[in-house]
Design goal:
The chain has 169 residues and is an alpha+beta fold. It has 4 helices and 11 strands; from the N terminus they run ββββααββββββααβ. The model has no long low-confidence stretch (mean pLDDT 93).
Amino acid sequence: MTTPEGPRILGHLRAADGTGVVHTQDRFDTSIDDLWSALTDPRRLGRWLGEFDGDLRLGGEFHVRYFGSGAETTARVEMCEPPLRFRVVSKDDKVIEATLTADGDATVLTVEHRGLPVDRLPAYGAGIQIHVEDLAAHLAGQERCDSDVRMGELYPAYRGLQIDAETAI
């Protein structure tokens, strides 16, 4: 969503151990089980995030090609505690950890991407927010956004964010 003041920014950027971190949090008007399913069922992921091939269970490896950027990666599921959290680690040591917290009839999703290049954090921040917004659209029964248009709105805003150093969010 973009307001007259600019786009709503979901992410925080920081550097830790010489690499970049994007920390994103948002609240979804759905149950924790439905949000877990949207994040871990390959058929549902294939509607809003990208094309998956492989095993998404604990210890499994998978390959994904993201819709928005066309980027591809291979990763392994290192932690899976349904419906509360999971962590995947890519072949190039990027880590994605998601935590789901029930909040009444809604669910708060916190996602942290670690091991990113610090000089490219604004682009990663904007791209990750696009994925979170596409997840929200999926849950609302809507189509994914035009990622090129949305990147054009979000990237300048993320470029203007301060990158915190070695501090916990």
